[in-house]
Amino acid sequence: MPYPPAQRRAYNNVLSARAEDGFRLFHIDGDLQGDPEPNVCGNCHRMPFWVSTNTPGTGMEAPTWRGAYDRWLILPQGRVNIIDFNFYRNITTLGVPEEQMWQFSWVSRPRFDPVWSMVLEGSTGFSGSFARQFTLSQGTVNDPLTNDLMDALEQAAGEGGVVLQGEGVFIDGTTTTTVALQFDAPFEGGTYVERDGDREAFSREALLARAAAGEFVGTFTARLGPNVDVDNPQPAIWAPGAIQVQSGPQRFPVLAAGSPNLVIRGRHIRDGANIIVDGRKVEGTVSCEIGTLPDCASESVQVQLQTLPQAGMHFLQIQNPNGLFSNDFIFHRE
């Protein structure tokens, strides 16, 4: 089931520090509910899609938190959305804001904000750069935001996360000529090439100079590659165990010094997939432990990083060639 792009994921595709904290709280540290041990929501609302089946003790399903920003009915059977509960009736006068509704499921209220950032930024298959736009014109060419957007979208296009295309006009006195352009990777030193006609290429500097002189106006949009249809679903990556089964705490891998291999579970991963760490493409390989992508035995996938990240918590994604990104998956470096 495809979801809309994450509402608040940054246009450089990097999770905010608050969203990272939300992932840690939700999947590792848990919610302080007065019990001897914190309630770790991710034990039931498991990666890849924050959902699982057949909760021990009740048999209830654990509804997905993905897309919570557009759903106000919570918990199995909607058993908190009862008008006789004063706390629920109080927010119905506000139209039942989703964030306040879902906050009822998190007892330590002041610590819920990072979890909601996780919900708003967690990947649903798209780069944070997808659908972002900038316009080059005399009025925008010197705007810092324009240049920042150009940097981010060119980098995303150079990494294969989006296809950066633009439509505009060249202006020569009273004569205008329409043009359709596409950014041609690599990011540094890349050019904007005509998508039809004689395929003339323009450097970024040339377009900026023409825009500053009033000789070019164009709007550029980060679009999807071709492999995003029903036959190319979002890749999914998760901790060891069956994708739907609750099996206790999720076991997130830890890289020791000199050990660049992550062994995870994965589905819908194509040969030649890109590795994304903390929002940016890195060098490495993705393969089956046994078998050949996309049909790995027991869905066991090995990710080999060429360079180890710094010590601490990190986020892995896998992106199919010209296709969708996986969910964000936690791993650690010693």
Class by helix and strand content?
alpha+beta
Arrangement of strands in the largest sheet: 1-6-2-3-4-5
Helices and strands, in N-to-C order? HHHHEHEEEEHEEEEEEEEEEEE
Mean residue pLDDT: 94
Distance between the termini: 36 Å
Query: In DSSP terms, counting alpha (H) and pi (I) runs of 4 or more, how many helices?
Result: 6
The main β sheet shows up as: 6 strands, antiparallel
Quickly count the domains.
3
User: How many strands in all?
Assistant: 17
**Radius of gyration over C-alpha positions, nearest whole angstrom:** 23 Å
Strand content: 25-35%
Please, could you describe this protein's structure?
It is a single chain. This protein has 334 residues and is an alpha+beta fold. The protein folds into three domains: 17-121; 133-223; 236-333, Immunoglobulin-like (Sandwich), CATH 2.60.40. Helix content is 18%, strand content 26%. The strands form four sheets. A six-stranded antiparallel β-sheet has the order 1-6-2-3-4-5, with helices on one face. A five-stranded mixed β-sheet has the order 8-17-16-10-11, with no helix packed on it. It has a four-stranded antiparallel β-sheet with strand order 7-9-15-12, with no helix packed on it. The longest helix is centred in the middle third of the chain and has 15 residues, at 144-158.
Outline the fold blueprint.
Layout: H1 17-29, H2 86-92, H3 98-103, H4 112-121, E1 133-136, H5 144-158, E2 163-172, E3 175-184, E4 191-194, E5 201-203, H6 204-212, E6 216-223, E7 236-238, E8 254-255, E9 261-267, E10 274-277, E11 280-282, E12 284-288, E13 291-292, E14 295-296, E15 300-305, E16 312-319, E17 329-333
Parallel strand pairs: 8-17
Antiparallel strand pairs: 1-6, 2-3, 2-6, 3-4, 4-5, 7-9, 9-15, 10-11, 10-16, 12-15, 13-14, 16-17
